[in-house]
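Thread title: Can someone regenerate the structure for this chain?

I was given the following input by a collaborator and told the matching structure tokens would be attached. They weren't. Posting the sequence so someone can regenerate them.
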Amino acid sequence: MQTLDLSPFYRSTVGFDRLFSLLDDQAPQEANAFPPYNIERTGEFTYRISMAVAGFSADDIVIETKENAISVKGAKSTSQTEQKREFLHRGIAERSFERRFQLADHVEVQGADLQNGLLHIDLVRELPESKRPRKIAIGTDKANETKTIENDVKN
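Best answer:
Regenerated them for you:
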């Protein structure tokens, strides 16, 4: 697979360096597909990450958020009774994993739940009041009339 050279964009744009860094970071990563996951949009400003984590309990999984990233780590603790088991076929992968996701600005984790071997992480995009659409009054000199402009921005 070819790599994309973004250096010409660095020369002709200002303030987009974070976007280009994200694109560089998302370029071909290792082929580790464990555990499988889905990312779905559940509403206009809500999202859900679902990960198949069969064999893991809530105590085996750690979810951390830092800046605009979320990290999910799973490590199965091995007790003495599990070490004595003898498998004739082992098809359920219980190996340790770490999966990272980049989050857009103002996207935060709302909660997490583990059901039927699926870890669900609910996310919500909450714009701060300063970033929300607002009406701005336009003053005129004629008889102190004011007009308003409505800014209807869709995210």
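The longest helix spans residues 17-25.
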